[in-house]
Automatic annotation (TrEMBL):
The lineage of its organism: Bacteria, Bacillati, Bacillota, Bacilli, Bacillales. Belongs to the PlsX family. Gene3D superfamilies: Isopropylmalate Dehydrogenase (3.40.718.10). This is Phosphate acyltransferase. Pathway: Lipid metabolism; phospholipid metabolism. Its main location: cytoplasm.
Length: 334
């Protein structure tokens, strides 16, 4: 299996991207890693290059502040677009990028293309939970607006992903809402609820955002607007929590002593909620495996993203989603 990595995307590119790709190539001999980007810049951080890692030179870079659609259409020799084209033309089985999120969504749509039957792809990051298993939430930003049918498709794709990549036999799927009662919510969630009841998934009903970290479900479905607000709220709360904790533990000699005693437990807790341990967010619904890393991803996050791609490819994720969607369309026409 061949995995293309956008070496020029992300806050720490290309250094951390290259280091993560090197670590992955050394650990998994069965995969071939292709670093896509400016060869001269990549070579600066290349040490003891393994045989299963190659470089695909490109001249252009899609910057973080580039307008997504214009950038993808005009910068055809950018590292991100070339990686996407490799997936479309079967030169690579998957692509990974920590670059411009909007541009990656556009690459998925315009360069790689949607799975037949999927109206809109969805970005599905893992949200850490108290039990360590995580929560797959989609969509968290690919589409600000969605229809009830699209939410139902998100539910199916998310269920397949957790089954194929995380090995959960019967993933519990919930619908993000303001209450657990079936008739709660806005017009979108009220219309989506019965569709999700009829979908070939283990639907458990509405789930409130305050319960997201409690692992009440394995897949949480929402539109990109509400989902992104939930995600940013959780990230902000976690950041403030650790900041206040640090201030309090360094305030006095006694608190410093207490911090020294509690440090192992605090570090374990922090690691559980560290995004770098969860790899990348898949863009579900396109005709190829596309993974989006956090913009500030380090080498460890890139390596974990490669591991994630490897598992998804071994379990034929994209074809499984396509088969499930097509089977559903057949059932609805009977």
């Amino acid at each position: 299996m061949r995995i293309a990595i956008d070496a020029m995307g992300g806050d720490h590119a290309p250094k951390d991207i290259v280091e993560g790709a090197l670590a992955a190539a050394r650990e998994w001999n069965e995969i071939e890693v292709v670093l896509v980007g400016n060869a001269a810049e990549i070579e600066k951080y290349m040490t003891d290059k393994p045989a299963n890692l190659t470089v695909r030179h490109t001249e252009e870079i899609i910057e973080a502040d580039d307008e997504p659609v214009k950038a993808v259409r005009r910068k055809k020799d950018s590292s991100m677009v070339v990686a996407g084209r490799m997936v479309r033309e079967k030169e690579a089985d998957a692509m990974i990028s920590a670059g411009n999120t909007g541009a990656l969504m556009t690459t998925g749509l315009l360069v790689i293309g949607r799975i037949p039957g999927i109206e809109r792809p969805a970005l599905a990051p893992m949200i850490p939970t108290v039990n360590g298993n995580g929560l797959l939430a989609l969509d968290l930003g690919a589409n600000m607006d969605a229809t009830a049918e699209q939410l139902s498709q998100y539910a199916v794709m998310g269920s397949v992903y957790r089954n194929k990549v995380h090995g959960i036999d019967r993933p519990r799927v919930g619908l993000l809402n303001v209450g657990t009662e079936a008739m709660k919510g806005n017009e979108l969630t009220k219309a989506a609820y019965p569709l999700m009841e009829q979908a070939p998934i283990h639907f458990i009903g509405n789930v409130e955002s305050r319960d997201a970290l409690r692992a009440d479900c394995d897949v949480l479905v929402c539109d990109g607007f509400a989902g992104n607000i939930m995600l940013k709220s959780l990230e902000g709360a976690a950041s403030v929590f650790f900041s206040v904790l640090k201030t309090e533990f360094t305030r006095t000699w006694y608190s410093k002593l207490a911090a020294a005693i509690l440090k192992p437990g605090i570090l374990k807790f922090r690691k559980k909620f560290d995004y770098t341990e969860h790899g990348a967010a898949p863009l579900l619904g396109v005709q190829g495996l596309v993974l989006k890393c956090h913009g500030s991803s380090d080498a460890n996050a890139i390596k974990n993203a490669v591991r994630q791609a490897k598992i998804a490819l071994q379990n034929n994720l994209v074809s499984a989603i396509s088969t499930e969607i097509q089977s559903r369309e057949v059932r609805e026409t009977i």
